[in-house]
Design brief:
Helix 2 runs antiparallel to helix 3. The termini are far apart. 36% of the residues are buried. The protein is mostly helical. The longest helix has 28 residues.
Amino acid sequence: MSEQESLRCSSARNRGGVQRVEGKLRASVEKGDYYEAHQMYRTLFFRYMSQAKHAEARELMYNGALLFFSYNQQNSAADLSMLVLEVLEKSETKVEDEILEHLAKLFSLMDQNSPERVAFVSRALKWSTGGSGKLGHPKLHQLLAVTLWKEQNYSESRYHFLHSSDGEGCAQMLVEYSASRGFRSEVDMFVAQAVLQFLCLKNKNSASVVFSTYTEKHPSIEKGPPFVQPLLNFIWFLLLAVDGGKLTVFTVLCEQYQPSLKRDPMYNEYLDRIGQLFFGVPPKQSPSYGGLLGNLLNSLMGSGEEDDVAEEAQEDSSPIELD
């Protein structure tokens, strides 16, 4: 028997063993022996990990979490979900779409107000970027954004869309957000904020997509350009100016549209950053990062990123709020 055939046979035996164990555990859960089943899952987890059977451990914990969720055993399900992450972290598993989809599935089943959900998503995002403490894999952000959108948690959904590459999905969510929670007079502000924030994150493509999709699909926006709302015309011109990269055009544009830009005090903060990124404007000198600016930087970095704040502050002297 060749080595490859031997490995296939070993994998099949392991899979059969996992299935037999899962059958016994499922029977315990179905009988209502939740505590006993939970402890059995944990015992098997540590046994598999000690034997370096990482794939088997992850599969068992994932299916176990789904089983407990189906019986509304939130605490046990959340615990096994965290063990899924522990396998990924300790085995240094590479990021794959299927794994990201599994993590998003577990997230979607967790109680929306539970502290475990917050801890889970923070660890999942950190793992998805190799534990570097950065903002997380764009695909995972996109999956989380869609889940939160379905829950009508538009603010959190927007945050995750901003760190994805799904400008079209973000725009469709913002149309719904604006229609259900915003004033008619603010329809332009919903997309303006998103475009400016995407540009601050150097995501010019998503900025363009979110603008074109939002203005096309929003029922309260007449077809353009040009648009009835001056702020939408500013954003349209800004996206063109970013492509051209001419500072004089950017400067005149910001001066001409100051009445519209004064509607939100953060717009000029965003534009300072955009000027640095796309038009060669030198950064403002800031002596420290306490107070308001420090809070804005923390907001940009997201929860659980405090360790990186000082380093990021030294590299960039224009923090922006992207909540």
